[in-house]
Amino acid sequence: MLAYTYKTKGTFKLEEKPVPEILSSTDAIVRVTLSSICTSDLHIKHGSVPRAVPGITVGHEMVGVVEKVGAAVTNVAPGDRVTVNVETFCGECFFCRNGWVNNCEDENGGWALGCRIDGGQAEYVRVPLANQGLNRIPDSVTDRQALFVGDVLATGYWAAKISDIKEQDTVLIIGAGPTGICTLLCVMLKNPAKIIVCETDAGRRKFVKEHYPQVEVVDPQAADVERYVKSITPHGGADVVLEVAGTEATFQMAWKCARPNAVVTVVALYDGPQTLPLPDMYGKNLTFKFGGVDGCDCGEILSLIAEGKIDTTPLITHTFKLREIEAAYELFENRRDGVIKVAVEP
Ligand SMILES: [Zn+2]
Ligand SMILES: [Zn+2]
Q1: Alpha-carbon distance 66 to 199, whole Å?
Q2: C-alpha of residue 241 to centroid of ligand 2, in Å
């Protein structure tokens, strides 16, 4: 089968590999029907994910059809259409029992697929601990509608869930890349009074304005975002801030735009350490939340998609064949042609 493979720092290559086999009774083999490229794949390519293992097939956003299951797999059966979770988790350890599946104590726990073990930018993928890692896609939901459930949409859902958003709130979302837009979609489910999206890229601002006209969009290059947010909110800042951009400037903007006693949720992954100027922040009594997604709400997300409450299909701006995946990476990495997300077909 064809598999897009992490060779060395800076190099991915489309290679022929054997179709994966069941290795453990809790495994499933999934025939990939649609996959995507995530910014984390680019982080692997550029060597900024030290635990990524050279030789592995990359890709951790995919949907497919179950081909084979091990004897202990009971949640799904061959023939089922499924979403694949970016995280591998056992469901039984201390962390899993608390819903903190990102910190699962299993040896493959956390983000393993397409990082430490073979992932899904391929024709087939082996999914360990398949009872937890696979969710059946409702018949009324298409592959394209379900494509982001296991990773980027799970992240947006988790971010909105942990941010304690109330209906009277003003919510500021910094960054309107794929994760920022998924976060926006999930914040909208909480019905806050006002949502402001801050984004530097004109194409992404246009995308948000076109698809979500009820949301206010600001350009930090044209306006002093801190002053603006403080001027339109009754208590000196946003009630909730979600930082989904990942730069030094946006990290500082996040806490500065928050009102006293606000929640600041950091979804972004940074290239380096960030500074918390505690003397300046003293008395603001902020609550910071941050970390990697606990991707254990995929069933709930799929129900919301089936009910028409979340639709991420507009994010799929381009579609490629697996044999053209190099071109898909080139487009995605260089953000050409208004790309938000790409879909990769076998
Ligand atoms: Zn990802
Ligand atoms: Zn666990």
Answers
A1: 39
A2: 30
Question: Nearest CA to 146 among 90, 84, 60, 94?
Answer: 84
Kindly give the distance from the C-alpha atom of residue 181 to the centroid of ligand 2, in angstroms, as a whole number. 29
pLDDT band at 283 (very low <50, low <70, confident <90, very high): very high
Contact between 120 and 20 under an 8 Å Cβ cutoff? The reply is no
Both tokens of 263, joined, read 């929640």
Structure tokens at 327: 């071109």
What domains are defined for the chain?
2-151+294-345 (3.90.180.10), 155-290 (3.40.50.720)
In whole angstroms, give the CA distance from residue 155 to residue 302. 14
pLDDT digits (tens, 9 = 90+) for 289-305: 998 999 999 999 999 99
On whether the CB atoms of residues 199 and 208 are closer than 8 A, the answer is yes
Structure tokens that stand for 289 in this block: 């939340």
Each residue's pLDDT tens digit, 86-118 = 999 999 999 999 999 999 999 989 999 999 999
Ligand closest to CA 133: 2
Give dist(CA 203, CA 205) in Å, integer.
5
- Gap from CA of 129 to ligand 2 centroid (Å): 10
Report the alpha-carbon distance of residue 344 to residue 3 in Å, rounded.
Answer: 12
* DSSP-based three-state secondary structure for 1: coil
CB atoms under 10 Å from CB of 248, counted, come to: 13
Nearest to 315 by CA among 151, 84, 148: 148
Rounded distance from Cα 150 to ligand 2 centre (Å)? 17
The verdict on pTM exceeding 0.85 is yes
